[in-house]
Amino acid sequence: MHISDGILPAGVVAAAALAGAGLAAALLARLDADRIPRIALCTSFFFVASLVHVPVGPTSVHLLLVGLVGIIVGRWAFLPVLFGLLLQALLFQHGGLTTIGVNALIMGLPAYAAWWIFGLGGLLGRRGGAFPAGFVAGAAAVELAAGLLALFLLSAGEWFRGGAVAAFVAHQPVALIEGIVTGSAAALIKKVEPRILEESRA
Fold it and tell me: pLDDT by residue (tens digit) across 145-176?
């Protein structure tokens, strides 16, 4: 789900970079030290999960775990995604440095959406509600990320229309898998350390 350098129009890349930088600056300005360990933890598992790519036709897919990131760190979810993408670009040349803003928006905004979805409808307060809420949040995050990826690719012109459609379709099984993983993780967290979920809502 990484878009490399040189694919998108310069205007799109610049706008995404400004939007990503502005969002990151706003979050960092309000960040307190108590949240840093949790953000670091989420950065690490997002970083590792996104490194394992499975080729599917003209594209490739990988786990995102952005839904889980959103559930754990809440409104700060954009930061672990941004830091993880920056490390991947610097250490392994995954994606690109000029497209950090684009890729961060593609995966960071769905993480934020997953946090909102997870708490929707008071599901956290119901017995056994963490799994279905986590499943929907995790699957929806992938669907949203795949949609944003396709839209950004379409901005590059007709040549990338096929790739945009292929990327969106290829991530449908990923959405199902991530829903199960995120739901299971949310249920486990709620059972053993519900404070994590409660604090993410604060």
Answer: 999 999 999 998 888 888 888 888 888 999 99
Helix (H, G, I), strand (E, B) or coil at 53: coil
**From 78-82, 116-120, 126-130, 157-161, the region with the lowest mean pLDDT:** 126-130
User: At 105, phi and psi to the nearest 5?
Assistant: -70, -40
Which residues are registered as beta bridge partners of 55? 60
Question: CATH code at 33?
Answer: 1.10.1760.20
The two beta strands, 54-56 and 59-61, are: antiparallel
Q: Given this model, what pLDDT does residue 189 score?
A: 92
- Could you say which DSSP state residue 97 is in? S
The letter for the amino acid at 113 is: A
Are 77 and 114 in contact, with CB atoms under 8 Å apart? yes
186: helix, strand or coil: helix
Domain count, the chain: 1
Q: Are 132 and 122 in contact (CB under 8 A)?
A: no
Q: Classify 3 as helix, strand or coil.
A: coil
What is the rounded CA–CA span in Å between residue 174 and residue 164? Answer: 16
User: Do the domain assignments include residue 2?
Assistant: no
CB-CB contact of 175 with 102 (8 Å): no
Range of the domain at 53: 10-200
Q: Is residue 5 part of a domain?
A: no
Checking 50-55 for CB contacts under 8 A at 24+ apart, the result is: 50/1, 50/2, 50/84, 50/85, 50/88, 50/94, 51/88, 51/92, 51/94
